[in-house]
Amino acid sequence: MVKCKICNLEFETDKSFHGHLKSHKLRMVEYYQTHEPRYDLLTGELINFKNKDYYFSNDFNNKISMKKWLKEQTPDAQKDYLKKLLLQRREKREKRREEDVEGGCVS
Length: 107
Description:
Helix content: 55-70%
Mean pLDDT: 93
Order of helices and strands: EEHHHHH
Shape: flat
Radius of gyration: 17 Å
Largest sheet: 2 strands, antiparallel
């Protein structure tokens, strides 16, 4: 379920929710950056919105920012962040594989 933070209506899918945003005269980028803002950990700038998955899976606008931010962290903080990042990537990859198997797209 996805809940609109403007009117509190609930939607079964992202697709139906994203279609609903038109009733508020908003594009996805405007909605997410306004109602669920995410900021680059180094610069404090809003994360660029390419799509919902990208927006919520990135903490930086580019790899240069990530590298600079990591250099400022303690070795333990670096390890913790990179471990979290790798676990997220693995989960994402496994989820895609499951969806491919369920959809009959095994290669």
